[in-house]
Design goal:
The chain has a domain of 90 residues. The protein is an alpha/beta fold and 410 residues long. It is globular and about 65 Å long. It is built from 15 helices and ten strands. Strand 2, helix 2 and strand 3 form a beta-alpha-beta unit. The protein has a ten-stranded mixed sheet. 42% of the residues lie in helices and 13% in strands.
């Protein structure tokens, strides 16, 4: 049985499984399905959440798992209003879209601005890198349409981040990618190394885990260095997201909502609910009831929490987390990894290290700590006066080392 009360932090809603493009590395099994989540399903979801003692004080609502912008602006106006009418005053909600960018218009920008919606755009870099995988249903590249969408957001003053999937070729081109982002005015970047998930097998799987790690280490080191040496890029998720976790106070808690039951509530367009990694919705597995713990039209949050499927998943995920705690020196940074990657790569939730965590956790952490060690060595040998107030000055330090000094001594 579960022993602690869940706390819902993130809700991932699938307004539609359908996507208007056909990325070659897409893992979503139902992307041809044009079903739409009824507003009644949206209402039922939030009624169950707000009626539950599991609701937290702040919830991020991510509209994803398909292309959310294939539905009209009016759909989200209705959905946002319905949620707002139900929302208790004690709960803050922030909506977010992850889009391929091809359908962005000024009308969408008005909605985003009106409701303070976060937005991420998927762009894989310059035309040849982007169009190698992100193609229309007829096989044509989507670069021009995606860039047009990003430019509209920029012109309308809408802040956004870009997620780029790194292919084997892209890992060899950090300078070219950096120049591209700066040219396009993209300041906030996130990298996803192409993965093998569901029925997609990445070409990077032909490389050994060590080779992939080395390639990503070289790429990220170079990209971080030139980003700090030159203006343009203000945020690199793989670096800037980790630095506060590495240098956080010992008493500061670490959470990983992907390993906590119902911390991440994932709802498909029919109201079926899963938890843990959002990618699990649509996967098939008899042991875990295809990862479905209930339906918002039929079950309460408490019933989902105590369902047999939830118990089976939570037991195996917890075993994997405990194994990570015992075996992995990086546990304090990630809190047990991503269950979907453990299942996809290792065949079971009850397992430890994956190529995914090797890349997104271990590699950037090693990179940051190596730079920190150099900075510490510099501090221990210099006879010059070191100014620890803002801005930092350390003779001979690079921009990267100064950044780490600020994080460590702030």
């Amino acid at each position: 049985m579960q022993t602690s009360e869940p706390r819902i932090q993130t809700i991932v809603l699938q307004p539609t499984p359908f996507c208007n493009i056909q990325c070659k590395y897409c893992y979503l099994p139902t992307r041809d399905d044009t079903s739409v989540m009824d507003i009644d399903t949206v209402i039922a979801t939030f009624q169950k959440v707000f009626d539950s003692p599991c609701v937290g004080g702040q919830i991020t609502v991510i509209w994803h798992a398909g292309e959310p912008l294939v539905l009209p602006v009016s759909y989200y106006e209705s959905a946002f209003r319905a949620i707002e009418e139900l929302r208790p005053s004690s709960v803050a909600i922030r909506h977010s879209f992850q889009t391929n960018g091809t359908l962005v218009t000024k009308e969408w920008c008005d909605l985003i601005r009106r409701w303070n919606v976060g937005i991420g755009v998927s762009i894989d870099g310059p035309r040849r890198m982007h169009d190698a995988n992100r193609v229309t249903r007829s096989g044509k590249g989507t670069f021009d349409r995606a860039i047009r969408g990003a430019r509209i957001l920029k012109e309308e003053g809408i802040q956004f981040h870009v997620i780029s999937v790194l292919s084997k070729e892209a890992l060899e081109c950090p300078d070219e990618l950096h120049a591209f982002y700066v040219e396009q005015g993209i300041e906030d970047v996130c990298f996803n190394v192409e993965e093998s998930e569901n029925d997609h097998v990445s070409e990077l799987m032909t490389l050994s885990r060590e080779s992939m790690r080395d390639k990503f280490h070289t790429f990220l080191q170079r990209f971080w260095t030139i980003s700090r040496q030159n203006p343009g890029i203000t945020y690199i998720r793989e670096i800037d997201g980790l630095i506060p976790r590495i240098f956080r106070p010992k008493e500061a808690p670490l959470s990983n909502e992907q390993v906590e039951p119902l911390a991440m509530l994932n709802v498909d367009c029919k109201g079926n609910v899963s938890s843990f990694s959002p990618e699990l919705l649509g996967y098939k597995n008899e042991r875990y009831n295809n990862f479905v713990v209930g339906n918002v039209h039929e079950h309460t949050i408490e019933q989902m929490f105590t369902s047999k499927a939830m118990e089976a998943m939570a037991t195996d995920i917890r075993a994997g987390v405990e194994a990570c705690r015992k075996e992995c020196g990086y546990f304090s940074l990630c809190g047990g990894g991503a269950p979907v990657n453990k299942l996809s790569e290792n065949g079971t939730f009850a397992s430890t290290q994956t190529s995914f965590c090797n890349l997104v956790q271990i590699t950037p952490t090693n990179l940051i700590l190596s730079a920190y060690d150099r900075m510490e060595a510099m501090l221990s040998t210099t006879n010059d006066v070191i100014q620890l107030a803002q801005p930092f000055t350390i003779p001979g330090a690079t921009a990267v080392e100064l950044e780490l000094a600020e994080a460590a001594y702030a």
